[in-house]
Amino acid sequence: MRVMLFRHGIAMDRLEFARHSKNDDERPLVEKGRNRMARAALALRKIEPKLDLIVTSPLVRAVQTADFLREVFPKADYKVSEVMRPTSPYESFIDYLRQIECEDPDDYEVCFVGHEPHLSLLSGYLLTGEERALFTFKKAGAACFQSYNPLEKTHFQLEWLLRPRQLRNLAERPKRDD
Asked: What's the CA gap between 88 and 16, in Å, rounded?
């Protein structure tokens, strides 16, 4: 199974939003974040032409980010899950992966949309079994991991890690035919 982790796009400033709402879960993407996400989603489509499932955090900014992915991967299934909430335990992520039903796990691709520092700590957990960040995700940044059966922590290998600017640059380049 290939597992992508994708950080939500640029959202409204936390302090500014707090003046209008007490619930940070409702903080949305700003226009700049939406524009960059549209390009990042197109870039992801260039490097990962197939996506079977999109799983997003229930927080508004993550759901809005996942909506861009849904546009470029219209055949992908879509789920909102507490497993991507920033406070979710990392072992619940592994449990979630184990519960995914698919015919061929070696040919199944899933993208999880979430938040920092949860994504960077989750990445470290997948690679080392420890809750530690080996790298950080910028807004609209992504990483792809290959998992190996059985689905356990430390049974993952990092395939690629792309910063937002790298993704946007890929979106602007013509696709090669080779």
From this structure: 26
| pLDDT digits 0-9 by tens, 118-167 | 999 999 999 998 999 999 999 999 999 998 766 666 789 999 999 999 99
How many Å apart are CA 160 and CA 142, to the nearest integer? 8
This prediction's pTM: 0.92
CA dist 126 and 124 (Å) reads 5
Question: Which listed CATH number (3.40.50.1240, 1.10.230.10, 1.10.150.130, 3.30.450.40) goes with 2-172?
Answer: 3.40.50.1240
Residue pair 137/14 in contact by the 8 Å Cβ criterion: no
Strand 77-80 to 53-56 pairing:
parallel
Please state the φ and ψ torsions of residue 101, each to the nearest 5 degrees: -100, 125
3-state secondary structure of 165: helix
